[in-house]
Amino acid sequence: MRTPVAVVVVVLAVIAAGVLYYYRHNASRPAGQGATSNSLAMPAKVTFELGTETRTVTAGNFSFSPNVLYVKKGDKIVVTLTGKEGTHDWTLAGYNNVHTDRVAAGQSATVTFTADKIGTFEYYCSLHRSMGMKGKLIVVK
User: Fold this and answer.
1) Where are the alpha helices (DSSP H) in the chain?
2) DSSP-derived pairing of the beta strands 64-65 and 76-83
3) Each residue's pLDDT tens digit in the chain (141 positions)?
4) What is the pLDDT of residue 51?
5) Residue 140 and residue 120 in contact, taking contact as beta carbons nearer than 8 Å
6) 7, 9, 15, 18: CA torsion to nearest 10
7) Cβ atoms of residues 128 and 140 within 8 Å
8) 39: exposed, middle or buried (C-beta count within 10 Å: 0-12, 13-18, 19+)?
9) Main-chain dihedrals φ then ψ at residue 119, nearest 5 degrees
10) Contacts 24+ apart (CB under 8 A), 71-75
11) Cβ neighbours of residue 56 under 8 Å, at least 6 residues apart?
12) What are phi and psi of 113, to 5 degrees?
Protein backbone atom coordinates (compact mmCIF):
# COMPACT_ATOMS: atom_id res chain seq x y z
CA MET A 1 0.00 0.00 0.00
CA ARG A 2 2.78 2.43 0.73
CA THR A 3 4.41 2.11 -2.68
CA PRO A 4 1.55 3.73 -4.73
CA VAL A 5 1.34 6.67 -2.30
CA ALA A 6 5.10 7.17 -2.46
CA VAL A 7 5.02 7.10 -6.27
CA VAL A 8 2.25 9.74 -6.35
CA VAL A 9 4.18 11.97 -3.93
CA VAL A 10 7.37 11.69 -6.00
CA VAL A 11 5.51 12.43 -9.26
CA LEU A 12 3.85 15.51 -7.74
CA ALA A 13 7.19 16.71 -6.37
CA VAL A 14 8.83 16.36 -9.80
CA ILE A 15 5.97 18.25 -11.47
CA ALA A 16 6.16 21.04 -8.88
CA ALA A 17 9.94 21.30 -9.30
CA GLY A 18 9.55 21.47 -13.08
CA VAL A 19 6.93 24.24 -12.88
CA LEU A 20 9.09 26.20 -10.41
CA TYR A 21 12.18 25.82 -12.64
CA TYR A 22 10.22 26.88 -15.73
CA TYR A 23 8.80 29.94 -13.96
CA ARG A 24 12.16 31.09 -12.63
CA HIS A 25 13.96 30.40 -15.89
CA ASN A 26 11.52 32.38 -18.10
CA ALA A 27 10.45 35.17 -15.73
CA SER A 28 13.59 37.24 -16.31
CA ARG A 29 13.64 36.90 -20.09
CA PRO A 30 12.36 39.76 -22.21
CA ALA A 31 9.40 39.03 -24.45
CA GLY A 32 10.36 37.15 -27.58
CA GLN A 33 13.29 35.36 -25.93
CA GLY A 34 11.75 32.15 -24.73
CA ALA A 35 8.75 33.37 -22.79
CA THR A 36 5.47 32.77 -24.57
CA SER A 37 1.98 34.05 -23.99
CA ASN A 38 1.15 30.65 -22.48
CA SER A 39 4.12 30.59 -20.09
CA LEU A 40 3.83 31.02 -16.36
CA ALA A 41 6.27 33.93 -16.40
CA MET A 42 4.95 37.26 -15.20
CA PRO A 43 5.90 40.32 -17.27
CA ALA A 44 8.49 42.61 -15.71
CA LYS A 45 6.33 45.67 -16.35
CA VAL A 46 2.57 45.78 -16.67
CA THR A 47 0.97 48.63 -18.59
CA PHE A 48 -2.71 49.26 -18.99
CA GLU A 49 -4.09 50.58 -22.24
CA LEU A 50 -6.72 53.19 -21.71
CA GLY A 51 -9.90 52.70 -23.61
CA THR A 52 -12.20 54.52 -25.92
CA GLU A 53 -15.24 56.10 -24.35
CA THR A 54 -18.25 56.91 -26.50
CA ARG A 55 -20.79 59.48 -25.38
CA THR A 56 -23.98 60.58 -27.09
CA VAL A 57 -25.22 64.10 -26.38
CA THR A 58 -28.64 65.27 -27.52
CA ALA A 59 -29.12 68.95 -28.44
CA GLY A 60 -32.59 70.32 -27.77
CA ASN A 61 -34.02 73.79 -27.26
CA PHE A 62 -31.05 75.56 -25.67
CA SER A 63 -29.93 72.54 -23.65
CA PHE A 64 -27.78 69.43 -23.85
CA SER A 65 -28.70 66.05 -22.45
CA PRO A 66 -26.74 64.94 -20.56
CA ASN A 67 -25.20 68.21 -19.48
CA VAL A 68 -22.36 66.58 -17.48
CA LEU A 69 -19.95 63.98 -18.91
CA TYR A 70 -17.33 62.13 -16.87
CA VAL A 71 -14.26 60.60 -18.55
CA LYS A 72 -10.78 59.41 -17.52
CA LYS A 73 -7.58 61.21 -18.40
CA GLY A 74 -5.85 59.52 -21.32
CA ASP A 75 -8.99 57.98 -22.77
CA LYS A 76 -9.89 58.51 -26.39
CA ILE A 77 -13.29 60.19 -26.33
CA VAL A 78 -15.87 59.97 -29.10
CA VAL A 79 -18.76 62.42 -28.72
CA THR A 80 -21.74 62.07 -31.01
CA LEU A 81 -24.07 65.05 -31.06
CA THR A 82 -27.63 64.26 -32.09
CA GLY A 83 -30.01 67.08 -32.99
CA LYS A 84 -33.45 66.91 -31.44
CA GLU A 85 -34.64 70.49 -32.06
CA GLY A 86 -33.15 73.48 -33.83
CA THR A 87 -29.58 73.76 -35.17
CA HIS A 88 -26.65 73.23 -32.81
CA ASP A 89 -23.02 72.18 -32.48
CA TRP A 90 -20.86 70.87 -29.62
CA THR A 91 -17.67 72.80 -28.79
CA LEU A 92 -15.26 71.98 -25.95
CA ALA A 93 -13.53 74.91 -24.23
CA GLY A 94 -9.94 74.32 -23.17
CA TYR A 95 -9.17 71.95 -26.05
CA ASN A 96 -8.05 73.19 -29.46
CA ASN A 97 -10.26 72.31 -32.41
CA VAL A 98 -12.59 69.99 -30.51
CA HIS A 99 -16.04 70.61 -31.95
CA THR A 100 -18.67 68.99 -34.11
CA ASP A 101 -20.22 70.28 -37.27
CA ARG A 102 -23.64 71.89 -36.89
CA VAL A 103 -26.57 69.53 -36.85
CA ALA A 104 -30.30 70.05 -37.37
CA ALA A 105 -33.07 67.95 -35.88
CA GLY A 106 -32.60 64.31 -36.85
CA GLN A 107 -28.93 64.73 -37.80
CA SER A 108 -25.74 63.66 -36.00
CA ALA A 109 -22.09 64.69 -36.00
CA THR A 110 -19.10 63.16 -34.23
CA VAL A 111 -15.84 64.49 -32.81
CA THR A 112 -12.95 62.40 -31.43
CA PHE A 113 -10.21 63.63 -29.08
CA THR A 114 -7.96 62.47 -26.26
CA ALA A 115 -8.79 63.68 -22.75
CA ASP A 116 -5.23 64.69 -21.91
CA LYS A 117 -5.99 67.28 -19.18
CA ILE A 118 -7.54 66.70 -15.76
CA GLY A 119 -10.20 69.18 -14.72
CA THR A 120 -13.65 70.52 -15.50
CA PHE A 121 -14.19 71.90 -18.99
CA GLU A 122 -17.22 73.67 -20.38
CA TYR A 123 -18.84 72.44 -23.54
CA TYR A 124 -21.34 74.60 -25.36
CA CYS A 125 -23.25 75.31 -28.53
CA SER A 126 -21.42 78.11 -30.32
CA LEU A 127 -24.76 79.46 -31.58
CA HIS A 128 -26.53 79.49 -28.22
CA ARG A 129 -23.85 79.72 -25.53
CA SER A 130 -25.11 83.13 -24.37
CA MET A 131 -28.55 81.57 -23.87
CA GLY A 132 -27.12 79.04 -21.44
CA MET A 133 -26.65 76.08 -23.78
CA LYS A 134 -23.69 74.64 -21.88
CA GLY A 135 -22.51 71.51 -20.14
CA LYS A 136 -19.46 70.18 -18.32
CA LEU A 137 -16.86 67.61 -19.27
CA ILE A 138 -15.14 66.38 -16.12
CA VAL A 139 -11.84 64.59 -16.69
CA VAL A 140 -10.66 62.53 -13.71
CA LYS A 141 -7.44 60.69 -12.99
Assistant:
1) 2-27
2) unpaired
3) 567 777 766 766 667 666 555 555 554 444 444 444 444 444 444 334 457 889 999 999 999 999 999 999 999 999 999 999 999 999 999 999 999 999 999 999 999 999 999 999 999 999 999 999 999 999 999
4) 79
5) no
6) -100
7) no
8) middle
9) 145, -170
10) 71/115, 71/137, 71/138, 71/139, 71/140, 72/115, 72/139, 72/140, 72/141, 73/115, 73/116, 73/117, 73/118, 73/139, 73/140, 73/141, 74/50, 74/114, 74/115, 74/116, 75/50, 75/51, 75/114, 75/115
11) 79, 80, 82
12) -155, 170
End-to-end CA distance of the chain: 63
d(CA 15, CA 18): 5
* pLDDT of res. 18: 63
**pLDDT given at position 34:** 45
**Among candidates 62, 132, 59, which has minimal Cα distance to 99?**
59
Which pLDDT does position 56 carry in this prediction? Answer: 94
Cα–Cα distance list, 100 to 17, 46, 65, 71, 123 (Å): 61, 36, 16, 18, 11
If you ran DSSP here, which 8-state letter would residue 85 be given?
S
pLDDT at residue 20, rounded to an integer: 54
Read off the pTM. 0.63
